Amino acid sequence: MKIHKRYRRVLFLFALFTVLSNRTKAQTEYDTIVVADLESWTSAEFKYKFNSKFDFDIAQNLRLKKNSSQLERTFTQVGFNFKPNKNFKFGIGYRFIWEQKSSSIQTEHRWNVDGAYKFEVGELSGQTRIRFQNGKEFPLSENFADKHLRLKLKLDYNIKNWKLDPEFSSEIFRAVGNESTKNFDKVRFTLGTDYKFNKQHSISIFYGIEKDLNETYPKTTYLVGIGYKFTLKNKSNEE
Amino acid sequence: MKNNIIIFAAIAIVFSSCYKEEVITKERPEGWNYLTHSDQAPINYNVVFPQDQVNKMYIVITNDDWETMQDDLDDMYGGSGGGPGGGGQGGGGGTSTFSDEKPVTVKCQVYLNDIQWFDVGIRYKGNSSLQTAYQQGKGKKPLRMDFDYFEDINPLIDDQRFYGFKELSLGNNINDNSFMHEKVATDMFRSFGVPAPIVSFYEIYIDNGDGNGFVYYGLYSMMEVVFDTMLEDRFGSNTGNCYKPDGDAARFSDSYSFDTDELEKKTNEDAADWSDLQALYNVVNSDNRTSNTEQWKTDLEAIFDVDGYLKYLAANTTMQNWDTYGNMTHNFFLYHDPADGLIKWIPWDNNEALSNDKNSAMDFDFASANDNDWPLLGYIYDVPEYQTIYNNYIDDFIEGPFKASNVNAIYQNYFDMISPSVQNESGIYTYLNSYSDFTTALNTQQNHAISRNNAAASYTP
């Protein structure tokens, strides 16, 4: 008799659980959204200065996602810059990207044109930059990947007798083109510094926060970055 | 001390910046229901593919989208006239070559039993069945639906399903006055144990936004899409490579190149790996076939489901089907089944089966098929053991599913079921000259079954 009662209770609980779980399943659909992540961005760059007006750079970048444990993308980037004077700078760039998708690596490419203005106010130096970029899947595809207008402000404060001057930047991204359905879609803030070993070798580190805009479930991405740069100058043009 | 503060700050920042997911409730359009629309709901074959009734499906397309579909068809087939008159049908004349391009996909609203599916992708589909319909100026053209095609544009329909089905294919029963070729041929394959998609009859009504409301477009054959649900249902998985060969590479003959462009992947598309089909191609054309037949058989059976293929071949040849391997380089799928590592043959598009109208179906011994053009016929049939298995399967087929009395009862049953739907077809939405074409076709099909039974019995030892 005792066993029988226990058996009935178990049966009742099992039936209750089944009914409740089926009801939940039958009514609602759920989705999992990534709302925050920590990414690490590393880069190695070579820069060649032809003279005081023209320079060329090439860099390899690696970005890791999901607490910096999985490949997000790696890309090779080349750029060519022109400085007509000490305030203005114009550049073009091309990037070939290997991006990790859910089940495979997808190749993409992207080009950009930049215009920048440099200024100095006392110990504060700054730069504003506007960039247009357009990216697509590769090989050639009509699939829209990335068409944006970006506006960036960078401020660098010169602390006397201190090699690690702080550098702050903010940048806002606006989707453009017929395919875009929203206006501003991302903002990025970084705080970092450069350390120059000598005229050729330098390292930069930064910490940043990137946040989606105009999304129902905006994602916040925390960035930790480190980059190495090797710079060469054309000695025949050195003053 | 300063260093400690920096280290502590760095650790604090990193730990406060961790990966985080949130579970949210999906936003859906009004009328969305878990069991009917969600990709998490079980697949409902009983509702979508009923075997004892004709479903009625209603489709609403805006007039702009409808015009886009017709203009696209004009571009594909170089229409010389027609335009969207007579209910919006283009056609009449045009080129006689098939197009490699897929017709344009537009949005539509789909209704079944007063339930709506939202912003479904719809397009014309097919080769000769579409082109012939176009050239004849017919409105009853084959269609294809993809229920979440527009999910990027309308996120509310993300992963929308039609009772679990993502894609469905609607055949227009052209060249088939009985309307039963597609249905009965796949029924026969399935009853005989050959993996084949399930088929049901649908009355299709379309409102194309021209102000005339819903117009009856005729009786269609709704087909399950192989790489959508069939693989999982029949093989228990859809993770293996699934191919839809179309072109000379589909012959698997070394007289033609192994062209991966003609061996379209329908699963695992991102992985540029055709090594399984390449292995099949290499084995089929290996010199071992003549120099060391036992080794050739062993190698072939290690990668190809020869027994299943012979079963398919026995059924297909008995039923007669000119529009497939042996005459045409298409209308089959190959699935590399991870369960046993073998490539399986899946017949597709059987609307030309069960007919000797074109009088070019294969002989039982494939005598008219050139071995070099169709090695999967001649090379395999030439192996005595395989020939015996094939012959035995023919006997099994005519004593089982395709026994004349059995198949003729099936014809009669479907005839009774679809008669009202056929009777209501009219104008440019039918391929019949009159309803009597349909009644005559029943006799033709039943006589065909008897004659094929007799022919098969005469062929087998």
What does this structure look like?
The complex is a heterodimer of chains A (239) and B (461). Chain A is built from one helix and eleven strands. Chain A has 239 residues and is mainly beta. In chain A, strand 6 (124-137) and strand 7 form a beta hairpin. The longest helix of chain A has 26 residues, at 2-27. The N and C termini of chain A lie far apart (103 Å). The relative contact order of chain A is 0.15. The model of chain B is unreliable at 80-96 (pLDDT under 50). Chain B is globular and about 95 Å long. The longest helix of chain B is centred in the last third of the chain and has 25 residues, at 435-459. Strand 1 (30-49) of chain A pairs antiparallel with strand 1 of chain B.
Tally of helical segments of chain A: 1
Query: Which percent band covers the strand fraction of chain A?
Result: over 45%
Question: Secondary-structure element sequence of chain B?
Answer: HEHHEHEEHEEHEEHEEHHHHEEHHHH
The radius of gyration of chain B is 25 Å
For the largest beta sheet of chain B, what order do the strands appear in spatially?
A: 2-3-4-5-6-8-7
What's the number of extended β-strand segments of chain B? 12
Biggest interface, chains and residues, is:
A-B, 25 and 22 residues
Sheet with the most strands, sense and barrel status of chain A: 11 strands, mixed, barrel
Unreliable sequence segments of chain B: 80-96
